[in-house]
Design brief:
The complex is a heterodimer of chains A (107) and B (118). With 107 residues, chain A is an all-beta fold. Helix content of chain A is 0%, strand content 48%. In chain A, a hairpin with a 6-residue loop joins strand 4 and strand 5. The N and C termini of chain A lie far apart (36 Å). The model of chain A has no long low-confidence stretch (mean pLDDT 97). Chain B has 118 residues and is an all-beta fold. Chain B has no helices and eleven strands. In chain B, strands 2, 4, 5, 6, 9, 10 and 11 form a seven-stranded mixed sheet that branches. Chain B is globular and about 40 Å long. The chains are: A mainly beta (107), B mainly beta (118). Chains A and B meet through strand 5 of A and strand 5 and strand 10 of B.
Chain lengths: 107, 118
């Protein structure tokens, strides 16, 4: 299985901050990477697919980049509704594994 | 607007079979893969498996020996059965629509909490 790691596991930030989350794959996955946002008690929400394509309706302050084994999710100016846990998922090979998550909390 | 709604038993005893069903309302059923994903309490997401309209499946090898995912195209429904459950199978189970080419899952069910306890 392809293993995904995320860093940091937890970050504390303020409204307006620029936030970057990194996802690393144990082997190359080209651009087969998606990012999800999950709020407590809710289903995850697809934010970015193909590493850098913004899902319809997702604000432009979210940006995904990377290919191969290293990927980043950047939120350019953190908003109150962005405080959540973010997961990456690889879709290069089965099983489609998820990263362990990064919780973004309010400072 | 595509909606995915799921249902099934929420409390099981060890060794029983977990059974969940998901119905798809609106949109194309045949153009996508239909997925199951679970999340143990306080933990991350685990991909369980997926199926398409013709019944082609992909399973997580860690669950494959106990897992069956099936489809009923006449009702736009798909189902999950997981046999011989233990406490480790306690989780919120989600059904979801998988994009093709594999681009993630974009429409999710509401989730079903399944607890395995004697």
């Amino acid at each position: 299985d392809i293993q995904l790691t995320q860093s940091p596991s937890f970050l504390s930030a303020s409204v307006g901050d620029r936030v970057t989350i990194t996802c690393r794959a144990s082997q190359g996955i080209s651009s087969y990477l998606a990012w999800y946002q999950q709020k407590p008690g809710k289903a995850p929400k697809l934010m970015i697919y193909s590493a850098s394509t913004l899902q319809s309706g997702v604000p432009l302050r979210f940006r995904g980049s990377g290919s191969g084994t290293e990927f980043t999710l950047t939120i350019s100016s953190l908003q109150p509704e962005d405080f959540a846990t973010y997961y990456c998922q690889q879709l290069k090979s089965y099983p489609f594994t998820f990263g362990p998550g990064t919780k973004v909390d309010i400072k | 607007q595509v909606q995915v709604k799921q249902w099934g038993a929420g409390l099981l005893k060890p060794s029983e079979t977990l059974s969940l069903t998901c119905a798809v309302y609106g949109g194309s059923f045949s153009a996508y893969y239909w997925s199951w994903i679970r999340q143990p309490p306080g933990k991350g997401l685990e991909w369980i498996g997926e199926i398409n309209h013709s019944g082609s499946t992909n399973y997580n090898p860690s669950l494959k020996s106990r897992l069956t995912i099936s489809v009923d195209t006449s009702k736009n429904q798909f189902s999950l059965k997981l046999s011989s459950v233990t406490a480790a199978d306690t989780a919120v189970y989600y059904c979801a629509r998988g994009l093709r080419p594999p681009d993630g899952v974009d429409v999710w069910g509401q989730g079903t909490t399944v607890t395995v306890s004697s």
